[in-house]
Amino acid sequence: xxxxxLLAVKNLRKEYTRGLFxxxxxxxxxxxxxxEKPAIVGLMxxxxxxxxxxxxxxxxxxLPTCGEVYCNGHNIHKVKYTExxxxxxxxxxxxxxxxxxxxxxxxxxxxxxxxxPMIHLFDEPQFNTQDGYIGFMLDFFYTLREKGRLxxxxxxxxxxxxxxxxxxxxxxxxxxxHGRVESLPDYASLLQDKHVRSYLGDLIQ
Length: 205
Fold this sequence. Notes:
4-stranded antiparallel β-sheet, Rossmann fold, alpha/beta
């Protein structure tokens, strides 16, 4: 354990390349940020911008090209595979948990020293205004935060209510575009950002 923040993403970069001898970068994402305390954090960005890749890097289900991710003080990529979801867990759309490839023997890695995930990453949860499910999920997010957890809510807004939910529950925001992760301190700053405004279009007109 070398970092006491709940989540520290340090000089992180993931590159995807093509070609055997003359490699060309086809996609990359870079991130560098720290979240010290429990919170509910909003994440947005266009399709293909790298949001899911970022979540996979945070949970250790994807290996970075360089950089490190510390979850509750542990370098997630050095934690035992069978214990990584005790630190950070990724729920992808229908709340299926993402899995990862093994690259080192489990016994050679360190323990998570935790029994329940500290970081919960919700990747485009299905907020349907007709079925009453929103209230249940938001209550769950609040409960997690009250218990000292960090919640990421990644939303691809399709109607104004999705933005209203983010404004109501999120304390900080990140916007991913062209492989870059931008930190925005509040909802007003989010809506003032030129990249966000271009992305949201008519939803904020």
